[in-house]
Specification:
mainly alpha; 13 helices; 2 strands
Length: 358
């Protein structure tokens, strides 16, 4: 006897819509059982994780600020994953983008005269750096058929170590009492705040604009159609005249550019200077966000907000309820597994097959 997955004749739109909701509720129930075993009231944990972050202005701003880079990176990754390409190195592209754009800010620190060009130059430099870094695994895949999974992942550590070296060495503030950080960016090199006296900055608008643009490209353009065809059937794509190699380069360029842009948005927004570490793992968490959002820009935006809420709630639970922060990461991973499993069950049905039918 064995269990087989048999394709359904027709996928129910209602089931496809409700499956992520049911997956989320299941994850919450499992999480409640876990925290109960840890001696904490599930109701209190639910309030801290999901209610408290939505109840105050500062926490709502923090949710938006954490969701923005996740949504921006995940939207770029959606192009790769829809084309059946596996860019696992968005974290490295994020770091390189932040470093390149931050270098522009450091190089122009204290400049006299007009400075309105500095912030746009930083954003462009960060985006181009992310594209260039993503081209390494893309070219290795196209030219030498090297697995993009391994190369993109290994390049993450190269980028992190290079940032660490630059922050401690060439870009270190000479008047910074030997702390491993650059000078604080000038006001002209910082993203403007959306509300006076608050922390919400224009990087949130950049993420929203990228989400809207990706929605148009994926849903209304020939390039979006080619991306789906290449991912679904490379042979059919070749018959249709779509080049798999060019699509690989284009998809990696988009995902790398989005990650690089997210990197400089984070540096020019929240951080305001270069440090040995500029990312809490956004590039890896964005992979979860991309699949939670089903590779749809709108779904990714919603998933980024959900992950941001659980992250803020997890930090509060660590303080208020003494729950480990790793529990939040475990919940996010469980949520991903349940959403993917629910998605499979909407496309296939489980069938028990006897040994004689083999």
């Amino acid at each position: 006897m064995r269990l087989d997955l048999v394709p359904r004749a027709r996928r129910s739109p209602l089931a496809a819509t409700l499956s992520p909701v049911l997956a989320f509720l299941t994850a919450v129930l499992i999480g409640g059982a876990v925290v109960s075993c840890l001696g904490v009231s599930p109701g209190a944990a639910f309030a801290v994780y999901f209610v408290a972050p939505l109840s105050e202005l500062w926490s709502l701003q923090e949710i938006a600020l954490k969701a923005a880079p996740l949504a921006l990176i995940a939207t770029g990754l959606a192009f790769c994953y829809r084309a059946n390409l596996w860019n696992i190195g968005a974290e490295g592209q994020f770091v390189v983008g932040g470093l390149a754009g931050g270098w522009v800010a450091v190089a122009t620190h204290g400049s006299a005269g007009s400075t309105v060009w500095i912030l746009p130059a930083m954003l462009v430099a960060g985006t181009l750096a992310g594209i260039a870094y993503a081209m390494i695994p893309a070219l290795l895949r196209v030219r030498l058929d090297v697995s993009e999974i391994l190369t993109s992942l290994m390049l993450v550590y190269v980028a992190e170590l290079f940032l660490d070296y630059m922050a401690r060495g060439p870009l270190r503030d000479p008047a910074g009492f030997n702390f491993p950080q650059s000078v604080a960016f000038d006001a002209a090199a910082r993203l403007p705040y959306l509300m006076e006296g608050e922390t919400l900055h224009a990087g949130v608008l950049v993420a929203l604009a990228a989400t809207g643009l990706a929605t148009l490209v994926l849903g209304r353009s020939l390039f979006g159609f080619a991306t789906r065809v290449v991912g679904a059937s490379p042979r059919a794509a070749r018959f249709a005249g779509f080049s798999e190699g060019r699509m690989t380069l284009a998809a990696f360029a988009i995902s790398g550019g989005a990650a690089g842009l997210a990197g400089i948005v984070e540096v020019a927004g929240r951080i305001g200077q270069l440090q040995p570490t500029i990312s809490p793992g956004y590039g890896f968490t964005a992979i979860i966000v991309a699949f939670l959002g089903r590779l749809s820009p709108l779904g990714i935006l919603i998933a980024a907000l959900v992950i941001a809420v659980t992250t803020i709630g997890g930090e509060a639970a660590q303080i208020d309820l003494r729950l480990p922060l790793d529990l939040t990461r475990a919940f996010q991973g469980l949520l991903l597994c349940l959403v993917l499993g629910a998605d499979v069950l909407t496309r296939f049905r489980i069938q028990l097959v006897s040994g004689a039918a083999r």
